[in-house]
Structure prediction request, 126 residues.
Amino acid sequence: MTSEADDAFARQLQELRREYLADSSKRMAELRELGARLARGDSTALADCRQAFHRLAGSGGSYGFPHVSARSREGEQLVQRLASAGSSLKPDDISAINACIAGVAGAFSQAIEGFRATDGDRTADA
Prediction:
């Protein structure tokens, strides 16, 4: 690859990363709504929550945001353990899930701040 092609690829990748972070508020709104559904006793929310954490664990790493991926993986593993236990969720379980959601939000905030430092403050807030 030529230097010009490398530069074009780097610009495209940077734009994809910017778009991913700009959409983080939507992703966090989804997770927060899932936390609220769990608190209301919605029986389908646990599976939906595991799936949402799973998607973020994969996409965070794919876009180069390992902290988003790690925090999401922690949430996914917690939800998987709770689902495998087969018992109804206790308030402490819901609090633990919400703590994982807050961890993902913090990881997105950290990713946005780091990205802004190299991208000239053009990234939306989480």
Observations:
- Residues 3-119 form a domain with the Four Helix Bundle (Hemerythrin (Met), subunit A) fold (CATH 1.20.120.160).
- The chain has a mean pLDDT of 91.
- The chain has one domain: 3-119.
